[in-house]
Amino acid sequence: MVYAYAARTRAAADQFADVQKEIAANGLPSVEESAPWEELREARVARQRPAVA
Question: What is the pLDDT of residues 3-53, one digit of tens each?
Fold first, then answer.
């Protein structure tokens, strides 16, 4: 269980580092290219919600 938590934490840290590298290399995306945070949140919540038959 601890190993699984450590693996998830490392994966999240790697993903965060990749985002930082992308921003450092290319700058922040323009507003026109970005999705509103509300849409991103709703998409994530929908993915986490169990499907009801």
Answer: 999 999 999 999 999 999 999 999 998 989 899 999 999 999 999 887 666
Dist. CA 16–CA 9, nearest whole Å:
11
Q: What 8-state DSSP symbol labels residue 50?
A: P
For residue 2, give the H/E element and its range: helix 2-26
3-state secondary structure (DSSP) of residue 22: helix
The Cα–Cα gap between 43 and 49 comes to 10
Among residues 53, 35, 52, 33, which one has the least CA distance to residue 44? 35
CA diameter of the chain: 45
> In the numeric block, which tokens belong to residue 2?
């601890």
